[in-house]
Write a structure and sequence with these properties.
- Helix content is 33%, strand content 14%.
- It has helices spanning 3-24, 32-39, 94-97, 106-113, 123-136, 142-148, 160-167, 225-233, 254-263, 276-283, 317-330, 337-348, 352-357, 360-366, 373-379, 399-402, 479-485, 492-505, 517-542, 552-555, 594-599, and strands at residues 58-65, 70-77, 90-92, 239-242, 247-250, 289-291, 302-304, 308-312, 383-388, 391-396, 415-422, 428-436, 444-454, 461-469, 476-477.
- The structure holds FE2/S2 (inorganic) cluster (2 copies).
């Protein structure tokens, strides 16, 4: 029996055992992270924020999709995942990727050798995000690598050595050679980028790439065949999990889902638990029944129609991004303006773990004021297909729907099946904006979707639509201002008036929740100004004889911020070549716990197992100086 076959059989036996435990413990209120750490004592997966924000708890979920017969791997925040959501899935934790007792995986080895950990608390999450990426893309691009790490925060090492480590897995040159200079910057006298970039290899001298183990995808665990069989057998079975306070129901077809929705109209539909889960965790919201519609094929439809793209409501945001990235280059540019605006938002929306869990339908229906896709979908005139036991209907996804107005909203027994995202037209201009405290993985302070449609071959406004998020409890529309501007020419006078109208219509009281009132008001008009310039730029590209080039100053407002993979440079003094090899002073030395950080074997205070009657101590500072302790 080959080693790999043996490992695979052992894994499957282990998994079978694990699965039975999961079935017995599939309490809807129990989350995967606490099950891993407290139930299975697998403490490599770390508890950082507990709300899907830091990535320390990242695991890889693998599922088998019986209809397409495909296995999907994706990273996920285990702190948000109820274990019953994982029925039939394989969960890989950092311990399953590699350990010092079995084999250290190349990801773990390189991260340790290239000084990618300091306290090591974020490291297992970093490993898992990269592992999930490599399982799907063995030759990832730098864009994919940085996107994969969007949801992982490191608060002490810094990202340079981590990104540098992972560059060694990139399937492309990652330095200036890529940017068309024809020569590496390191061949010139003045260094302008990290030495570690050169030729896609680690050349900094801080670690030696020749010591790296090669990546061998054939050595990875296979998806357990038992789960594949189970997914096929259970395809038509309703799954019900009872907890102390909550019942979790996963119907297998649309008819059954509609019956359930009619029976429990208040029950939320939960796909990735990134929104309802947070409400339950942070606000103590309780749902006696939760419906999990993920196994229903109708909710995963993806089709290209004459009017636009139809995307199933249960498709994840990562799937939506991948679909848009595929179709945009295949279609004429003028048809893809809404898609490109959505893509721009999807690239900075949360982290890959959340994008892999959150669904399009959930994003729309939860109507968070700072959710970045809703203003763009609304200005793009997207249409929601709804269904209930009473039939089907379509409603516009517009400002009134987003504000939750009775007639424009879902009825209690209805569900969203799919969303039509229309193609744009030749004289359409669509833009998306967001400003957040961090560029990625942070909720927007203000976001916006803007669209203008001109009379054919002119710059006369025929239709204008502007929506802002982050201003009030829901996404708000500058509807009246837009109506006043119809018929106007796209020029500076129009812009002046538009700014005044918008500031008059979108009010923010000085005591508005969330504060930053002046900042947010400034963003309203800053976005508008940028939209004005983007449209002028587009008009000039379409009709160069009619519309002049933008001035250099105005053009400078249009560049994208940090669109390339992050580059860093580290300068250090090398040791004297005459220094004896046994003298370590001044030499880069791998963190002694580096490998254990990367395998999750390093033990932190919170990883120490609880014992009966243990006593906790905490350091406090006295509020009084020189007081006597009695
Ligand atoms: Fe921070 Fe889960 S613990 S994302
Ligand atoms: Fe990343 Fe400490 S938080 S190594």
């Amino acid at each position: 029996m080959g080693k790999l076959q043996y490992i695979s059989i052992m894994y499957n036996l282990l998994f079978h055992f694990l699965l039975q435990i999961i079935e017995r413990n599939a309490n809807p209120e129990k989350l995967l992270l606490s099950y891993l750490r407290k139930g299975l004592h697998l403490s490599g997966t770390k508890y950082g924020c507990g709300i899907g924000g830091c990535g320390a708890c990242t695991v890889m979920i693998s599922t088998y999709e019986p209809t397409s017969k495909k296995i999907m791997h994706y990273p996920a925040n285990s702190c948000l995942l109820p274990i019953c959501l994982l029925h039939g899935s394989a969960v890989t934790t950092v311990e399953g990727v590699g350990s010092t007792k079995t084999r250290v995986h190349p990801i773990q080895e390189r991260l340790a050798k290239c000084h990618g950990s300091q306290c090591g608390f974020c490291t297992p999450g970093m490993v898992m995000s990269m592992y999930a990426l490599l399982r799907n893309h063995p030759d990832p691009s730098m864009e994919q690598i940085t996107a994969a790490l969007d949801g992982n925060l490191c608060r002490c090492t810094g990202y340079r050595p981590i990104i540098d480590t992972y560059k060694s897995f990139a399937g492309e040159a990652a330095c200036c050679q890529l940017r068309g200079t024809g020569q590496c910057c390191l061949d010139k006298e003045e260094d302008v980028c990290s030495s570690s970039d050169k030729g896609n290899q680690m050349h900094s001298g801080l670690c030696n790439p020749e010591e790296f183990q090669p990546v061998d995808p054939t050595q990875e665990f296979i998806f357990p065949p038992e789960l594949m069989r189970m997914a096929q057998e259970q395809q038509k079975r309703t799954l019900v999990f009872h907890g102390e306070r909550t019942t979790w129901i996963s119907p297998s077809n649309l008819r059954e889902l509609l019956e359930l929705k009619a029976m429990y109209p208040k029950a939320p539909l939960v796909v990735g638990n990134t929104s309802v889960g947070l409400e339950m965790k942070l606000d103590g919201v309780h749902h006696p029944v939760i419906i999990h519609p993920t196994r229903i094929p109708d909710l995963h439809v993806v089709s290209n129609t004459n009017n636009g793209l139809v995307i199933g409501a249960a498709c994840s945001l990562a799937q939506l991004r991948d679909i848009l990235m595929k179709v945009v280059p295949e279609l004429p540019e003028e048809k893809t303006k809404i898609f490109r605006a959505l893509l721009q938002q999807l690239k900075t929306l949360a982290g890959e773990q959340i994008r892999s869990l959150a669904s399009l339908g959930g994003h729309i229906v939860s109507r968070g004021s700072t959710w970045d896709l809703n203003p763009v979908l609304a200005v793009g005139n997207s249409v929601l297909s709804l269904v209930s036991k009473d039939g089907t209907r379509q409603i516009p996804l517009n400002d009134q729907f987003l504000a939750g107005y009775g007639n424009a909203d879902l009825k209690p027994k209805e569900i969203i099946v799919s969303v039509l995202i229309p193609y744009s037209k030749k004289d359409d201009f669509v833009s998306a904006f967001r400003q957040a405290e961090r560029r990625k993985n942070a909720a927007s302070v203000v976001n916006a979707g803007m669209r203008v449609l001109f009379k054919p071959n002119t710059d006369i406004i025929m239709d204008l639509n502007i929506l802002y998020g982050g201003i009030g409890p829901t996404t708000v529309s500058a509807r009246k201002s837009c109506q006043r501007l119809i018929g106007r020419q796209w020029n500076e006078q129009m812009l002046d008036e538009a700014c005044k109208l918008v500031l008059g219509e979108i009010s923010l009281s000085p005591s508005a929740p969330g504060g930053k009132v002046e900042y947010r008001r400034t963003l309203l008009v800053s976005f508008l100004f940028r939209f004005y310039l983007e449209v002028l730029y587009g008009l000039n590209k379409m009709y160069p004889a009619k519309y002049p080039d933008l001035s250099k100053k105005n053009l400078s407002a249009l560049g994208t911020f940090h669109s390339e993979a992050p580059q860093g440079m580290q300068t250090y003094q090398d040791v004297d070549p005459a220094q004896p090899p046994q003298d370590p002073v001044g030499r880069p030395i791998m963190h002694q716990s580096g490998v254990k950080h990367a395998t999750g074997e390093a033990v932190y205070c919170n990883d120490i197992r609880a014992v009966a009657e243990e006593l906790f101590l905490a350091v406090v500072t006295s509020p009084r100086a020189h007081a006597k302790i009695v």
